[in-house]
Amino acid sequence: MRGYRYLAVACSLVLILIAPAPRLLGADVAISPARAQVRAEQADWAHARRLDIILSEFQFAPSEIAVDVGAPYVLRLENKGWFRHDFTAPAFFRTVAFGPGQSASEAQRSGGSFSLAPGEVQEIEFVPLQAGKYALECTKPLHGLFGMSGDIIVR
After folding, report:
1. Residue 147 lies in a domain
2. What percent of the chain has pLDDT over 70?
3. Residue-range definition of the domain harbouring residue 43
């Protein structure tokens, strides 16, 4: 009986390693940089809505984030875990206008992923430009498998 358990675990690992990456749920269309820049400049950043997201072992809290097209937001990411985690949503970040600061260049460099050390906090200012449902995950090994995933819903 014990041999069957080991075989089942080994087969599961092989399937995980060879399975294709999950398809992102949002539209895979990038917004033009000129359009994004205009939207960012027009946003009223003094009245941006704040979204607090906690990263920990092995979850995002909350795991479903709902935002409105055209509204400015400040996404505050805080890693309260013991390990490094990331907030990865490349399809989503290709469809937003970033506010002033380093968020845009960091998102472009990282392919839509923000990595946080334990105890670190990052704030990202953005305006969603395209409605859709976008996949969110932590891409650290096995974190997504253990449930560190979610959705960003743009209405």
Report:
1. yes
2. 72
3. 24-154
Instruction: Tell me how many degrees the CA angle 100-117-68 measures, rounded to the nearest 5.
Output: 40
pLDDT at residue 88 above 80?
Answer: yes
CA 151 – CA 138 distance, rounded (Å)? 12
Count Cβ atoms within 10 A of the Cβ of residue 82 and give its class: 0-12 exposed, 13-18 middle, 19 or more buried.
exposed
Instruction: Of 121, 150, 126, give the one whose Cα is nearest residue 138.
Output: 150
Which tens digits make up the pLDDT trace of 93-110?
Answer: 999 988 877 666 677 778
Task: Count the alpha carbons within 13 Å of 24 in the hemisphere toward its beta carbon.
Answer: 19
Residue that wins the pLDDT comparison between 145 and 8 = 145
Q: CATH number of the domain at 61, please.
A: 2.60.40.420
